[in-house]
Structures are given as structure tokens and as C-alpha cells.
Amino acid sequence: MLRRYPPMLDSFQRRILLDLKTYGIAVAHIDDFMTGVNALVRLHAFAKHFIDDTGESFRNQPQGGRTKVFLTHFWKLKPPIDIENPFVRFALEERILGVVNSYLGMHGNLYYLTLAKTRPMSMGADAVSSQRWHRDPEDRRQCKVFLYLTDVGAQQGPFTYVKKSTRGNAYGALCRQKPPIGFYPDDGHVEKAVKREDIFEAMGKAGTIIFAETTGLHRGGYAISGERVMFTAGYRSRASVTPSKLRYTPDMQEEITRNLGNVTAYAAIPNNPSRLSMALYSRFKKLNKRLKTNVYYEG
Questions:
Q1: What is the CATH architecture assignment of 11-291?
Q2: Residue 179: pLDDT above 80?
């Protein structure tokens, strides 16, 4: 369907798409996508309101399923797909979806949303979880969009990416992704195998947007000083067997269908993997855990 009715991209979107296809990563600013609406100001206001009102209640409580101890999550593990939430609106913005869908070659499915603050690590602490190089597991081709809500420099744990590490590219065979699990190579392995100029640190002002094919090698969140507040949206195909990490109710789905355009609604409505695929997926995860390999699934 996308080939018959491809998104109409402007020159800027085409440039972002070209970078994404060539390097696996592209960087822009929120003003390039949502001009004239004070989008960053609105998102900042919403984030501050949300953090002040409810963030504290999460900070000292166990967060089931969370493995990234260096993060403060301001939303629950499976947040609701609330179209009144301006972050959800941002993730479903047509110009954002135009780039994402064109890259995926299909109408993508939004499956993941998170708003989190990265805390500085103690001096000399080892990198853990997604602070280490890894490939995401949810699909063979996927895209995440990251939005910095604070200025991020080298000290604040910038998102870092190995250019050309996607499938079929220069480093595509390095530490191969193995859906439905990812891959965490041994420390130092990636640095020995890639050229230094191909390791890209995405630093930028608040409002910086990063499009990334996260089956490519990446890491981030190892802050030394200062904090990084970042919103993340994840997109993949409906064929993926990994369950959506969003919460829906019948009322939400009806509201999405009634109030959003076809392309946007398609992205927002969850996929429903078959019982068989979910059973196989669950058994594969348990087997991998029992073998205790260096391959991990980050649920």
C-alpha cells in the first residue's frame, strides 16, 4: 500500500531519509518538523508538569520490568496511548511518520513510548544495559525517534551510533542482530572493529531529534555530569512478534479511529501477534535466559 501511495516528502524530509538509509542515523530539530506551534515549549511545559506532579511517586518505587537503573522513568512501563498527550501527538505527527514509514518501506506501527531522565554515574562505574553497545531486538528493521528535552553534550550521555552498522552495510555483519533478541558484544569489541570516525555522538540542544535504525549498533546514557531528559518513540512492522509496550482500552482505540487520519491511526492501533508466535517468543526468551549467553532481550 505504501508503494502505491507513498508519503509526499519535502526536500528536508528527503535529506533526513537519505541520511537514515545511508548511515542508519539522521539528526534534525523539532522546529524543522513542527514550525510555528512552539512545540518544544509545549512539550517542556507538559514534561515539567508531569514530572512535578507524578515523577516523584515513581522515583522511590520498584518499577517492574525496568533494567536500566541509571534512568528515572516518568511514565509507567506500558503508558497509555493518550492522543491528548503532546508527546504521543509528536510521535504520530505526519511529517515524522512520513520519514519513518518511507524508511521502513511500509506503514509502521508505534509500539514504544518512554520519557526518562538519565542520572550521572558514579566515578569509574561500569557501563550497564543500554549504556553498552547493542542491537535492538524487536524486528529485523525498525526505527526509533529520540527527542532531547535538555541540552546534551559529551558529559550527559549522548546517544552514540556506529554509522553504516545496519544490515547489508559496512558493519552490518558485526555482532549480528538475532530477532527476537538483540546482541550485546563484549566490551571493547566494537571499538577494535570500526573506524573511530564512524562512531557518531549525537550531541545537541534541547529540541534535537534523532532518527535511528536501532538494529544498528548503538549505546547511550552514560552521563558523567548533568542530566539528560529524553523522549523516545519506537516504530516497527506489524509482523513483529514482540508485544506492544503501550496500553490501550477499547475507548482509546475508538478515539484514535475517530479523530486521527488513516495513516496516523494505523500507526497508533496495536498489532496483535498470534498465540503461536507469542508462545514461541516466550519460550525463546526463557531458553536464552537459561543459557546465560551474552545475547539479551531488553524488555
A1: Sandwich (2.60)
A2: no
